[in-house]
């Protein structure tokens, strides 16, 4: 598989991740002012890191590097998922809002995992998956 170098905007996973960022910004704009430099800043940073790392990975040479950036994006998506749970548990967002945005995060996570498997398979010799450690 050839990395779509420089053309990250055409990737469905980047588009979904960008949409997630826009929603996170919308949700966090309603948080109390006391959270501006707290959880709002943290969840926004983590959300922005998802499509930013996809874009950066597209600019790298080779599938292995692209896969590494997809893995970093997946970690950031999991971080966003946690912040949504925290905001819900602190009653900063409603249960419905938390569930709606978490659903979007989980969709992005699934897309990242799928693309990562595909890219890693292409990066392996002869397109084979590396053997599992067991």
Look at the helices and sheets and give the structural class. Answer: mainly alpha
Seen as an oligomer or otherwise, the chain set is single chain
Our Rg estimate from Cα atoms comes to: 16 Å
Q: Compute the average pLDDT.
A: 89
Largest pleated sheet: none
Which residues sit in consecutive blocks of at least 5 with pLDDT less than 50?
Answer: none
Beta-strand residue fraction: under 5%
The helix-strand sequence is HHHH
- Portion of residues in helices? over 70%
Notes on the protein architecture:
The structure is a single chain. The protein is mostly helical and 134 residues long. It is built from 4 helices and no strands. The chain has helices at residues 12-29, 39-58, 63-89, 95-123. Helix 2 (39-58) packs antiparallel against helix 3.
């Amino acid at each position: 598989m050839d990395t779509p170098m420089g053309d990250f905007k055409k990737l469905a996973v980047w588009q979904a991740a960008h949409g997630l960022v826009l929603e996170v910004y919308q949700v966090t704009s309603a948080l109390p002012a006391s959270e501006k430099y707290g959880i709002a800043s943290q969840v926004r940073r983590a959300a922005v890191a998802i499509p930013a790392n996809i874009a950066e990975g597209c600019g790298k040479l080779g599938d292995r590097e692209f896969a590494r950036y997809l893995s970093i994006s997946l970690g950031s998506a999991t971080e966003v998922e946690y912040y949504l749970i925290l905001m819900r548990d602190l009653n900063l967002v409603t249960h419905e809002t938390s569930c709606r945005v978490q659903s979007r995060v989980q969709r992005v996570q699934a897309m990242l995992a799928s693309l990562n498997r595909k890219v890693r398979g292409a990066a392996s010799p002869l397109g084979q998956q590396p053997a599992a450690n067991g």
